[in-house]
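Section handout, structural biology tutorial.
Before the tutorial, make sure you can parse a SMILES string by hand: atoms, branches in parentheses, ring closures as digits. In the record below the ligand is pyridoxal-5'-phosphate, and the chain has 430 residues. In the tutorial you will relate the predicted structure tokens back to the input. Do not try to memorize them.
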Amino acid sequence: MSTSESVRKHKEYLFPAVSMYYKEPIALAKGEGPYVWDDQGNKYLDCFGGVLTISVGHNNPKVTEAIVNQVKTLAHTSTLFANKPQSDLAEKLAGIAPGNLKKSFFTNSGTEANETAVAAAKTYTGRHDLVVLRHSYSGRSATTLAMAGQSSWKKVPNLVGGVHHAHAPYCYRCPFNLEYPQCGLKCAEDIEELILTATGGEIAAFFAETIIGAGGFIVPPPGYFEKAAAIARKYGGLFITDEVQAAWGRTGDHMFGISHWNVTPDILTSAKGMGNGAPIGLTIATPEVAAKYPGITFATFGGNPVSSAAALATIEYIENENLIKNCAVVGKHLGERLKQLKEKHPLVGDARGLGLMQALELVKDRKTKEPAPAAANAVLEETRKKGVLIGKGGVYGNVIRTGLMLNATKEHADQMVDALDAALTAAANM
Ligand SMILES: Cc1ncc(COP(=O)(O)O)c(C=O)c1O
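Predicted structure of the complex:
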């Protein structure tokens, strides 16, 4: 039984659906850099950052300073008034976003960012149908739940129609039992048949996470987005990429994950790591798409000066500290070490990821690839005992997800991998 009063009250007063990790859930009380402490005084290396959201360290001095200064100066305006942090942030984003993405709309969450993107695509094109991906997660509104590609997230009734789920570019479990590159990117090609058979032959958008996050860090193969976006555009649709998890340098080498492919989106969404924990959602679009957004729109907390100041400070920190490069370097080291775990532990069916977005998919049998969700739970519990917090995901609940902070060192990565190594041994013997 947990002795935490916060955990007890959480269970007593919150919706039961607000589930927590671990048999004995943890109440976090303090964070500093890559570490967090629970309310019992235990220290952990935080390798998940509240789901890839603490991007530049807990209580990062630069971000905290920006937040405190802004709170003391002006904490709220609504979108009815301009404010300097929002305007400066929008200008900054126009300078760094891919392609011709120049116009921003700010909200509080990834859900709202995606809701806005879909509404923009539908109005711009005058079309209704969406092609989305199986295994994906896009948020908890009616539209984004309809878009979810995971049954466990969409138990509530939802009425938004016109959403069509294409096969995921999930090479480890290829839906066509093919192998890259001989597959000819069948998963992307199949989008054409989906449009021709499941819609009226025209779509508003192809909407995809650049790396499927909650679905278990599924990285589409080279060439996938080029082909998928071309098909979407052939049938009148925009290409929307959801970088709620994959932006801000996390994938290494580029500020935005989609820049690993040779294609530019019409709309990009983000949230999470953008504000290092400050609530913010971003929908950034081309001027043409933004110009057609219908009527007038408003968001009470959209472009909130404090969240905007936090986001600006986070992005500047990423740039000034050269963290995109750091993600590539530490990510390469981590990827190699995770591949070694795969060689060593039969439980590990696949080790995959880009930069500091790396995962292990656990299976009971490498040939049948039967998922091993109980082992994933055991690995979570065992790593916790070693003072390391990680994440989980995947439709089958069998993927270990890691999201070290963008300023993580190789030593942090090693500490995490050593804990995973011991935990995998323990899980195999259970
Ligand atoms: C890829 C992706 N899109 C959208 C969302 C929804 O974001 P939020 O929880 O901020 O509404 C999430 C949240 O996990 C996500 O991972």
